[in-house]
User: Which sequence fits this backbone?
């Protein structure tokens, strides 16, 4: 019953060779999917919103709804 | 084959605290052969332990050997090829209490733990329910349906989160959710 001599050296290097690419891959994937799943759509949403944003119209609508204290709704 | 005595039986019945990394108190039981009220172990002397992460204990499992066991130890001093398989196993069992597979053997403790956890979580649920009925003060009026409706209307009027959030989902022309 003679066993093979077990591997005595390079255990950390072997583990890193296997796990580091995976770790970097997952990290980069997560970062890219956050960028393209969250930040880019958000930037587009804001850009689109402000393309058709009429500040005065919005202000008047809010004023009529009565949320301001500096200006009352127009009318009685 | 040399059979270990009631100390082994005691370890089989002990069950509970035999997770892989707990110190075993079987060393004490062995030298006092299952006497229930035992005096405290002298921790200043080498102790026996069964640990998966530290394979070679400071002393053999059995140090008080009977006659037959002592004769076996004498035979161990000679060539080992003359030992039978049963004698080799007996010598191993003199030195060690549990083998690695015995140390690592799964127990059914997780069922008790899980069951106990769920039982107490359930009991806590009953306690919270009772508290909801008998202890909690009346809800503040800001949580009434009417108040919350007025609050939502005011938030829409103020155009809260108009880009991606609340007001973005409200259709102002039609007066309904998009």
Assistant:
């Amino acid at each position: 019953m003679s066993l093979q001599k077990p591997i005595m050296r390079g255990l950390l290097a072997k583990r890193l060779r296997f796990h580091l690419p995976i770790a970097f891959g997952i990290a980069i994937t997560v970062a890219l999917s956050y960028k393209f799943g969250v930040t880019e759509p958000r930037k587009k949403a804001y850009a689109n919103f402000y393309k058709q944003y009429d500040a005065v119209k919005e202000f008047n609508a809010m004023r009529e709804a009565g949320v301001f204290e500096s200006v009352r709704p127009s009318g009685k | 084959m040399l059979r270990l005595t009631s100390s082994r039986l005691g370890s089989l019945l002990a069950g509970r605290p035999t997770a892989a990394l707990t110190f075993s108190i079987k060393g004490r039981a062995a030298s006092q052969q299952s006497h229930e009220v035992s005096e405290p172990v002298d921790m200043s002397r080498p102790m026996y332990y069964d640990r998966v992460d530290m394979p070679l204990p400071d002393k053999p499992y059995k140090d008080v050997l009977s006659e037959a066991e002592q004769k076996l130890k004498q035979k161990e001093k000679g060539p080992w090829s003359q030992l039978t398989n049963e004698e080799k196993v007996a010598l191993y069992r003199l030195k060690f209490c549990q083998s690695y597979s015995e140390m690592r053997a799964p127990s059914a403790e997780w069922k008790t733990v899980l069951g106990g956890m769920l039982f107490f979580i359930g009991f806590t649920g009953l306690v919270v329910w009772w508290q909801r009925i008998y202890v909690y003060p009346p809800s503040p009026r800001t949580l009434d349906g009417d108040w919350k409706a007025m609050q939502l209307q005011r938030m829409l009027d103020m155009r809260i989160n108009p880009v991606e959030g609340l007001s973005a989902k409200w259709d102002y022309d039609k007066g309904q959710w998009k």
